[in-house]
Amino acid sequence: ACSIVVKFLNQVVDRIKDGVDGGNLSSVLNELGDRLYNTILTHTRFFSYNTTGAMLLLCDINEYKKCVNGWGVKETFKKFDALHALANLLVVVPDNLPKACSSQLLASVDKQLVNSFVQLRHDYKSAKLYQTNY
Question: Count of H helices and E strands in the chain?
Fold first, then answer.
C-alpha cells in the first residue's frame, strides 16, 4: 500500500506544482503533509506491533519521508522525522526504551503520544513496560 500511496502523492504534487506557486504552493503542500501525517499516525495507532511488523512500519515511514522531503516543506519533514522516531520505539530493546523516548527527535512530541506508542508494542505487558512512564 505504501508504494501505491507514494506514487499517487508524487502525481498529485506534480499537478499541484503545475497550478500553484510561491507562498500558496508552500501552504498547499504543508496542508497535504499535515493531512498525510495525521492519517498515517491515526492508522498506525490501530495496531499492536511485534518486531517484524514494526520494521515494516519503519520501512514504510522511510518511504513517506523520502516522498515528503522532495516537497521542500521543512515543517512537514520534521513531523515525519518524529513519526519515524515514534515508530522506532516499537523495535528498541526494552532496556533502551527510556533513552529512545527522550531522544532529540521526540523532544517536541507530546509525552502522551510517546507513551501511547510504547503501549503498541507486543511486549508491553510481558516486559512490564507499563511500570514506567515515558
Answer: 6, 0
Q: Tens place of pLDDT for every residue, the chain, 134 residues?
A: 899 999 999 999 999 999 999 889 999 999 999 999 999 999 999 999 999 999 999 999 999 999 999 999 999 999 999 999 999 999 999 989 999 999 999 999 999 999 999 999 999 888 777 667 76
Task: Write down the pTM of the prediction.
Answer: 0.89
Is 67:3 a contact under the CB 8 Å cutoff?
A: no
Cα separation values, 118 from 28, 70, 81, 122, Å: 32, 30, 17, 9
Q: How far apart are CA 26 and CA 29, in angstroms?
A: 5
Domain ranges of the chain: 2-131
